[in-house]
Amino acid sequence: MSLELLGVSGLREDPAGSLALSIWYSNVRVMGPDSVPGPAVPWRKVLWERQPFPDNYVDQRFLEELRRNEGIRQYRYWAVVKEAGFVGQQLSCVAIFITLWLYMEQGLLPPETLLWTSLVCALLGYGLHQALTSQVESGCEPRTRLADLQSAAIFLSFTFGFSPVLKTLTESVSTDTVYAMSAVMLLAHLVSFPYAQPSPPGSLSLNAALFASVCLASRLPGALHTFAMLSCALMVFALWPCLLQRLRENAPSQFMGLCVVVCIGGVSGLGSQSPGGAVLLALALGCVTLLCPLLLVRLQRHKDNIQGPWDEAEIHEDLSHFLH
Known about the structure:
Layout: H1 17-29, E1 67-68, H2 77-105, H3 111-132, H4 145-167, H5 175-192, H6 203-217, H7 223-250, H8 252-273, H9 275-299, E2 306-307
Antiparallel strand pairs: 1-2
């Protein structure tokens, strides 16, 4: 519609025409359908109502709802070091297992000695686990000692019976390939291990560790060596994390001390076979348990997480009644 038809043709020649035009337009914009002046329509953040604003319009209150670092958890260095201790001890457990395999492969460790040592450690660990287990288990019935004994007997029987088969399992595979597969599987065990809740261990990490154990045990001299190595692998990779989780929950100070002992044992044991490997392990433990927590704490100050009206809507109302 032209300005002449609206009766404002003189505004073009008027020196103050622009000001008059803006005043006239504002009056027209707030007029109702009956040409009665009404109040200006405020902008509302709704989609179901037609408003005299563009779809992408926001007012000056848009950034007033900006929130920074809401709900960000502040970490303390020694608390992070304590949690990283689980990662370090698991790395040391892998080193201890490899050290035991090297001793058996070189004939320096008899399988009988490893079996009896594993049996004594398993009994002591089981007793400590039962002592740390709470009397009331939420949501499930506690396992009885008879059920635990039955499970252990079944595993040991099947492992002992299949030891001759497992001994010859990788005869047609080259030694380099077996070592490469074992290294990859142990690395997969460390990467996929559920460090936050390791009791029971994750199926992927446990299967990867047992696969590596079978590969390494098949290179040992006899079937008894294979049985002893697999029994030790079950204790290190399946039972030990459960006990350590109980210690972390019920005895935090003893948990930290035990992690330190395991790390020292891993470095010392690997150093007796490979000094270079022990140095690499010590550097990896220092990086995981000391350097990485320091970087995490230092980088928290640079974190800038923003929330505002542009975030997706979160429905907190219980909508289950709509499903019936």
